[in-house]
Amino acid sequence: MRIEVISSVNEARADRFTHRTAIVIDVLRATSTMVTALGAGAASIYPVETVLEARTLQRQGYTLAGERFCRKIPGFELGNSPEDFTPEIVEGRRLVLTTTNGTRAIHKAMRADFVLSAALLNASACARSAMELRRDVVLLCAGCHDDFALEDGLCAGMIIDRMQALSSTSIDVDDFGTAMQGFYQSSKERITEILKGSSSGKRLIKMGFSRDIDSCAQIDTSSIVPKLQGDMIIIG
Amino acid sequence: MRIEVISSVNEARADRFTHRTAIVIDVLRATSTMVTALGAGAASIYPVETVLEARTLQRQGYTLAGERFCRKIPGFELGNSPEDFTPEIVEGRRLVLTTTNGTRAIHKAMRADFVLSAALLNASACARSAMELRRDVVLLCAGCHDDFALEDGLCAGMIIDRMQALSSTSIDVDDFGTAMQGFYQSSKERITEILKGSSSGKRLIKMGFSRDIDSCAQIDTSSIVPKLQGDMIIIG
């Protein structure tokens, strides 16, 4: 088994996903929100790239969620803060989610045999699922705008670490993945601090979303692995 | 002071270097070779991008060195193995060097106020020079073909670690640099092993250059900081 890591959505070419399991990572906040929303009982999440697409789906009974520049989109019921996705609000509902990088990353990965969503919240569960699917794995760090995001690299490193612990045979990890695993190993005792010091973390704190960082920094609190089925993300 | 790290030469846009100190890193092997060649008494190194350019310079009395696909170029006196660059062969001579990624990276960085070359061999010396130059710093990892190379990331992480230790004020490091510093911190006790397990390392071993890895894995054995002056690299 081989694991490769793509440093940001801009680096992702569709052909790198063929015959693989793709794991999309956007810790702050899209994939953390997906895990939380499905955990709170949302029926499904439809990831779309544009606000216009989302608005078109509203008439079909979808609940709209998402952000642009960290903020809730005008006319949308929900933003991209995991804590907004409570059972009272989302249970049984079909959501549409559009975010700057996270939903774009899901679309980029669609050529893969399987597309999973990972955050720190479900990293170990996601590592287990990926092992069970028995394909080579591509971890796609969504990143922030056009750049690598520290928290996504940290999560990629953690998933690789978990997969190696679960595997009885040796796993071949590419150079970028090896670096991320090393980074995770040196940082695992101070996850929240790392998230707060990252570019995305600093931006969220500035905009008043520091509670989101605390929720997204929790490790393995969920066993839910969001998985793409057709166009929809459901519990895998 | 701010430090940014570019993951491979393909990611380098010229405008990121303006008003900065650029540190070009190609541990296996171009920048290790530069440090070794200048340490052995070479008068200067002229980094050129093409074999044709190098051949044109031969008539002007330059000694040609370089590689394509890890191997010495036909008609060149020297390859890209640091140990070929002994005082007997290079003392007082003006060299031309052309390599797949390393010399390309030097050219990409030319818009910077200062361009230094770093390897593990001179990482601390290079960190000190960069501090003295009092500019923001961009570390350019040359990488391997179009990708990130583990050994270049490791060296970038080490230089950041050294610069932070030397600085009395706090240094602002970008997300990629922070990840590389963490990777270095978790790997510093097994540098040679990391280099041998990297993609470039495995390729060099396969082609019979494993002694080069041992020479390039030495830490801080040189105080020489190769520096670009006009078109030439000399001792800074």
UniProtKB/TrEMBL annotation, chains A, B:
Catalytic activities: (2R)-O-phospho-3-sulfolactate + H2O = (2R)-3-sulfolactate + phosphate
Name of the protein in question: Probable 2-phosphosulfolactate phosphatase
InterPro entries, per the entry: ComB-like (IPR005238), ComB-like_sf (IPR036702)
Superkingdom classification of source: Bacteria
Enzyme Commission numbers on file: 3.1.3.71
Coiled-coil residue spans: none
GO molecular function: 2-phosphosulfolactate phosphatase activity
Transmembrane segments: none
Enzyme class: hydrolase
Obligatory cofactor(s): Mg(2+)
Keywords from the UniProt entry: Hydrolase, Magnesium
Pfam families: 2-ph_phosp
Family recorded in the similarity comment: Belongs to the ComB family.
Gene3D superfamilies: ComB-like (3.90.1560.10)
